[in-house]
Amino acid sequence: MRRLCLSIVLLCFVNAVHAQSATREHFAPKGWEGSYHGLHYTPVVRIGDRVIVSGIPAAEGDTEEAKIRWAFQQMQAHLEAAGASMADVVELQSFHVAKDHDEFRRRIEPVLKVHREFFKDHYPAWTAVGTTALYSSDAPMEIRAEAVIGSGARARADIPKPPAGAP
């Protein structure tokens, strides 16, 4: 009898954990449906409170800065489709077309400018990578993001400012 009771308790626990496991939801903002159906990738995936935005090429605009701003605007729309906001972004990864370090540094400048427009404080972690090519041939960069819904409302940064002249 003791063994049967323990088995029932264990089964109830396993069922409760399974019932609470996160659901994976797939989203494609208007205009991005072809990514899912044609290219077979999901523009945005939500697992519980975690949101993953696939790489968005900086593909629309007359200037490099305009293309980059468009990519950030698309990232914002992708996040909103899954119930997140730019304030909820905890990590960015960006990929920049450049043939060498000097070109990479030059190409990151407009990204930094646009980044400052979208992230005024409580900045996400960010990895910027140089590469020779992207899927979208005219895009100078591509950006992807991860967010945790609601984390922007509780963000804090107790990081002292560095002395003048320090990076």
UniProtKB/TrEMBL annotation:
Residues 1-19 form the signal peptide. The keyword Transport does not apply. Coiled coil: none annotated. GO terms for molecular function: hydrolase activity. It comes from the Bacteria. Keywords: Hydrolase, Signal. This is Rid family hydrolase. The lineage of its organism: Bacteria, Pseudomonadati, Pseudomonadota, Gammaproteobacteria, Lysobacterales.
